[in-house]
Task: structure prediction
Amino acid sequence: MANVVSPAAQKVQAILREAGFDGAVRELPQSTRTAPEAAQAVGCDVGQIVKSIVFRAADSNRPILVVASGANRVNEKAIGDLIGEPLAKADADFVRARTGFVIGGVPPMGHSESIQTFIDEDLMNYAEIWAAAGTPNALFRLTPGELVRLTGGRVTKTK
Ligand code: 5CA
Result:
């Protein structure tokens, strides 16, 4: 924990500890802003990277989080059907305001408000996965079961 210097990454580490998760946030020298960069940085398959993609529900204006495998594209129409309203793009300001984190560092949990979350079922195929930890160069390793517990999200087909 002592080696985590960025305030945003420290915040994620603290949130994880409070949730009873004992894994450590890792700050890396290189960028982990995108899923391919993150996979390269930790030496895993791109599919093992947890993308936390924020959308805006078009009618209610609430944020919707899709936690997707780095190998997959999100099917916005399918998620819109699940929530009963279309999904719109979220811009960088919306993401920062509603999650408390900048794009490229948004973690799957610990946001400034509670966000309805859908989890890509393909992430369940891996023994270990990696998620963003608050900044575009911080990650933490977890299991799919831990992801489900930490986010309270619904596992479904998101692609
Ligand atoms: N740290 C990496 C791996 S964990 C990461 O956060 N990847 S990510 O996929 O979860 O976050 C990047 C995502 O942010 C992109 O997939 C894209 O959906 C979104 N994004 C990137 N640029 C913008 C932008 N200008 N406006 C809105 N969303 C964006």
